[in-house]
Amino acid sequence: MTITGTTRTYAHIGYPIHHVRTPALYNRLLGERDIDVVVVPVEVAPEDLASMAPAFRAWRTLAGIGVTIPHKEAMVHLVDQLTPMAELCGATNVIRRDSDGTLVGGQFDGIGLVQSLLQANHRLKGAKVLMSGAGGTARAVAFALAQAGVGTLVITNRTRDKAAVIAAQVRQAFPACDAVLHGGEEEFDVVVNTTSLGMKPGDSLPVDPAVLRPGVVVADAVMAPPETALLKLAAERGCTPHPGLLMLQAQFESTLEFLGLVER
Ligand SMILES: NC(=O)c1ccc[n+]([C@@H]2O[C@H](COP(=O)([O-])OP(=O)(O)OC[C@H]3O[C@@H](n4cnc5c(N)ncnc54)[C@H](OP(=O)(O)O)[C@@H]3O)[C@@H](O)[C@H]2O)c1
Q: Distance between CA 132 and CA 134 in Å, rounded?
């Protein structure tokens, strides 16, 4: 795309920022859609984050802000409003700047996974899902799965107490979803990895391989490498692998709508 005087900016903030994949993907997709917005990686150290908020409000051609590690939780306290999902998650990964400078924090990590699974025609309503992880992504994914009507959400995580907290919060917010800790059962419709396991060669698997039964949908939030050891084994065992890039691509559509760059 050509940057002109009318081009608006989407600032993608994090610390460090060199590893992010969003700018390359989003700039390509924005160009394909002829949307006059450019995504720019912006490195902001945690101690400088609060001083950036007034600048974001004053930046009239700012279309929005993408937020990545470690700022997703801290930005919740620096924006003016939150969507219900961002409020539930206590984290924001996309911020809209309204024309009066108001900053509105949204959270689309989990919604992206749900949208991508539905787009691939995988059933979520009433499904039994195993989720590995209890970090920031896990929280967003858990609430989004519960909102999508998952019947049972079984959570496993290295630090069990963190999984217990998420399970309790999901049950409170979505009483129809039976969110529990993993007790060793093996039969699930969908398995989701939200841990960072799989990013490095030699990482252990995020789930017990016994859950990888033929026909199970196996989604991985990890995007690099595109085919993690979990997805490779899942394919070998007759499961349906669902790579992390699909989750990011689906977030793009929700992000465009939230920022008002396309019609809802
Ligand atoms: N595809 C997408 O659109 C998308 C969007 C957002 C994030 N992601 C990806 O999601 C992954 C997680 O990100 P996050 O922000 O949620 O990270 P996070 O908050 O730091 O959480 C990390 C999770 O991984 C677990 N973990 C880390 N090292 C482990 C180990 N050696 N053994 C067992 N468990 C381990 C942690 O367990 P403990 O709780 O025990 O520490 C925790 O559950 C990253 O790969 C990120 O790139 C993808």
A: 7
